[in-house]
Write a structure and sequence with these properties.
22% helix, 219 residues, globular, coiled coil, alpha+beta, two-stranded antiparallel ribbon, Pyridox_Oxase_Alr4036_FMN-bd
């Protein structure tokens, strides 16, 4: 239905990272969320890719590239379609592009809560069961609560307990740092800076590609 430059992953609302996403957000951003949906705190994610398959040949090749993504992170919970989460939806929708061939009617049949459920459904039953387990990071000296057991399997995509703890985290990137180390003697580095609808480069040597400015810098 949509495509975007955003990154999504799942987490447990009881984990420290979930609280940090909210606690480090500005007051305005915290108020933008619902009871379970919100956030907007700063985030930085790093990926190291050593090998990758060529899109055309399918052959594996060495890429030796580090990607560092900076931006803001948002939590999507069971109340994502509520009025309280409206501003969060607006922030994310601004960075989403409708796929070619999709219509306004298609978009009206799509929903945020259905998308969150799809992420939950993409997990296998054992992974879904972890959201019914003991609170992550809590010392084992504290006994788990009623029904909080390890190794549970959840088949019901609307399981009340698991869905209460399940969150989708969406990273809205504003800066991407790419370092190519495939040639040990000639490392290269690029910065991608989100410019939105501003089609003018602001950095020396920068070039605008879509909504991003790309500039090569010394590694």
């Amino acid at each position: 239905m949509f495509e975007s430059d955003m990154i999504a992953f799942t987490t447990d609302a009881r984990m420290e990272k979930a609280a940090e996403i909210v606690d480090t957000a500005s007051e305005e951003r915290i108020e933008a969320g619902g009871e379970m949906t919100g956030g907007g705190g700063p985030v930085e994610a790093v990926f190291w890719i050593e090998k990758a398959k060529d899109a055309q040949t399918g052959e594996e090749r060495k890429v030796m590239t580090q990607w560092r993504i900076r931006g803001s992170a948002w939590l999507l919970g069971p109340d994502v379609d509520s009025e309280g989460a409206k501003k969060v939806r607006e922030v994310l929708r601004q960075r989403m592009r409708r796929l070619e061939g999709k219509t306004q009617e298609d978009e009206e049949q799509w929903s945020w809560s259905r998308e969150v459920t799809a992420h939950f459904g993409n997990l296998n039953p054992v992974m879904r069961g972890t959201f019914r387990g003991p609170p992550p990071g809590q010392p084992v000296a504290f006994p788990p609560g009623k029904g909080e057991e390890l190794g549970q399997e959840v088949v019901d995509l609307q399981d009340e307990v698991a869905r209460r703890n399940f969150r989708v985290v969406v990273i809205v990137p504003t800066e991407v740092d790419q370092v190519d180390l495939s040639d040990a003697k000639r490392a290269r580095r690029w910065l991608y800076l989100w410019r939105g609808n501003s089609y003018h480069a602001k950095e020396a040597g920068g070039e605008v590609e879509g909504e991003w400015e790309k500039v090569e810098v010394w590694p």
